[in-house]
Amino acid sequence: MDKTPGGAGWATLATIAVLLAAWWGVTASGLVAPLFLPGPGDVALRLVDLAQHGFIGASLWQHAGASLARVGLALVFALVTAIPLGMAMGLSRRVNAALDPLIEFYRPVPPLAYLPLTVIWFGIGEVTTVILITLAIFAPLAIGTASAVRRVDPDRVRAARSLGANRDQVVWLVIFPSALPDILVALRIALGVGWSTLVAAELVAATRGLGFMVQSASQMLVTDVVVAGILVIAAIALVLELLLRWIERRFAGWASGQ
Question: Which residue of 74, 118, 177, 193 is surrounded by the most CB atoms within 10 Å?
Answer without folding.
Answer: 74
